[in-house]
Design a protein that fits this description.
By secondary structure, the chain is an all-alpha fold. It is 68% helix and 0% strand. The longest helix has 41 residues, at 11-51. The protein is rod-shaped.
């Protein structure tokens, strides 16, 4: 990861840091979305177990 060598920031450094942050954010977004879908499936399965009603189809 880029850093301020000598304790001095430059416009180029800020651009690189912003780019790195966007890259990291993209890598975080996928598992967060997957977690949300998994939570939805768990909620549906829990409801099915408790009520006997079928799980909703097509949840994504």
């Amino acid at each position: 990861m880029p850093y301020a060598a000598g304790g001095r920031a430059t416009p180029e450094l800020l651009d690189r840091l912003s780019t790195e942050r966007k890259r990291v954010e993209g890598r975080i977004a996928e598992p967060v979305g997957t977690r949300g879908r998994l939570d939805s499936v768990i909620t549906g399965a829990t409801g099915n177990l408790r009520t006997g009603r079928p799980c909703r189809a097509g949840i994504s």
